[in-house]
Amino acid sequence: MMHSNPDARVDLDRTNRIDMPEAVYCAGKTVKQCTTIVTEMLEKGADAVVATRTTEAQRDALLSIDPPSQGEQSGTITWRHRPSTGSKAIVVTAGTSDLPVAGECQQTLTALGHQATLIVDVGVAGLHRLMGVLDRLHDSDVLIAVAGMEGALPTVLAGLVAQPVIAVPTSVGYGTAFGGQTALNSMLTSCAPGVAVVGIDNGYGAACAAHRILGMQQ
Description:
This protein has helices at about 15-20, 30-45, 55-60, 100-110, 125-130, 135-140, 155-160, 180-190, 205-215, and strands at about 25, 50, 70-75, 75-80, 90-95, 115-120, 140-145, 165-170, 195. The mean pLDDT is about 95. Helix 4 (about 100-110) runs parallel beside helix 9 (about 205-215). Strands 6-5-7-8-9 form a five-stranded parallel beta sheet. The protein has about 220 residues and is α/β, with parallel strands linked by helices. It contains nine helices and nine strands.
């Protein structure tokens, strides 16, 4: 296959292989590279298009592309959303500072056709807040728990609900949070069985993991 773009080899066949389109990771790319890649995907592909980690300049340029974006959240811009699958995902954050990562996750899931709900600021420092939304959490097919600091939220959740729990450590925290390393290690050593963990600040990766789980439930 010939590639007209000298800066990227767009993988238009990825959906056929793994039921997920290639995403455009915009960090480190120029504005022109981002717009060229997204334009090629919109013109030559047929699946949803997801661009993550955009800067303000990149967003301004990408949002001017035709056809217009169908969603923008936390630096993630999406086009050509898939039809609804009927699947329900809930993205839960320990704190408001975790929202950028949670938004990346929610916007990606939405583009892939899932109903993605966001519940914010229910970290374990105020356990009553989590218990207050527990009924809502049971009404989901998969949960994504996004937390920094000591990263305890996924463990608590996985001890309360039967749904799959995907843990996302964030780089939020004081002192010995070490840019998310403490939360990551805490989640990896969770005493709640069956918690799946992605890398630090990887909201996109968590969305893809959730998509694979939801696909098996169809």
